[in-house]
Design goal:
The chain has about 90 residues and is mainly alpha-helical. The protein has helices at about 5-30, 35-55, 65-85.
């Protein structure tokens, strides 16, 4: 993994966390919500590493099976892909 990929993951996870927290606040205030499709797109882009812990930390969407099954699938795919990448000799290079 190169340093640019790590910066990308860091940035997409910060953005994903802010969007997820914003959706929780909107739900509490009964305002127009962020579509689940948008949240899933950010998970697919790599933001799943912040969204998954937030689901349980702020108690948002952690009981909705139609939402969290996709989140768990994304975490498995991302960790599997990163593990595969590292195990094939592609270590962090600066």
């Amino acid at each position: 993994m190169n340093v640019y990929f790590l910066f990308y993951l860091f940035a997409v996870n910060i953005i994903s966390a802010l969007i997820f927290i914003s959706d929780k606040r909107k739900a509490q205030k009964k305002l127009r919500r962020i579509p689940e499709k948008t949240l899933h797109i950010f998970e697919l882009l790599g933001g799943v590493f912040s969204i998954l812990p937030l689901m349980y930390f702020i108690r948002h969407k952690n009981r909705k099976f139609s939402y969290y099954w996709f989140t768990w699938l994304m975490i498995l795919l991302w960790t599997g892909g990163i593990t595969y990448y590292i195990l094939n000799g592609n270590f962090v290079r600066f």
